[in-house]
Amino acid sequence: MMEGVSGPSRRNARGSQPLRLSGRRSAGLLVYRRSNGAAIEVLIAHPGGPFWARRDEGAWTIPKGLIEDGESELDVALREFREETGHEPPSAATIALGEVQLKSGKTVVGWASEGDVDPAMAHSNQVEVEWPPRSGRRITIPEIDRVAWVSPGDARRLLNPAQAAFVDRLVDALDGSAG
User: Fold this and answer.
1) What pTM value is reported for the model?
2) Residue 148 CB coordination number (10 Å)
3) What stretch of H or E contains 45?
4) Does residue 105 come out as left (phi exceeding 0), alpha (psi in the -120 to 50 range) or beta?
5) Which residues, in sequence order, are CB contacts of 176 under 8 Å at separation 6+?
6) What are the tens digits of pLDDT across the range 57-100?
7) Does CATH place domain 21-178 in 3.90.79.10?
8) Which residues pair with 108 in a beta bridge?
9) Which of 9, 66, 97, 144 qualifies as a cystine partner to 128, CB 3.0-4.6 A?
């Protein structure tokens, strides 16, 4: 779920009643793949809409969203990956990446999973936001406008600074599992 714009409207699967969201906790999935032998790349997402249109460094995110009442963190991470990329999440074993806290105060719980998707085939769900802010005007935008495979170094530079910790934790977990 996007940060920085007036809250997106979230509705349940039937589109009727708004969802009850569990505080300020989100969960997301950092998908990685191995390239050039042992090197890894991670899949990151750029938020859609006019607020994010000209922002790059520090603006990208892992596919993530708010935890709904009664839903497990991992279920949220998998659902949000599906909604924000249009791809099924990888079925490989997941790695728990712990939590980070964003400047906004929201906590994000991260998971990682090995897989491969084609960024050119990605398509995101649509959300409604107020734009311009405090105007009362609502527009519909893609929650994510693009995804990309990047090196861990590029991911650290492009991701929201708090979420860059997920990349470090993934690299550490993979290095630990190599021995």
Assistant:
1) 0.84
2) 16
3) strand 39-47
4) left
5) none
6) 999 999 999 998 899 999 999 999 999 999 999 987 799 999 99
7) yes
8) 26, 100
9) 9
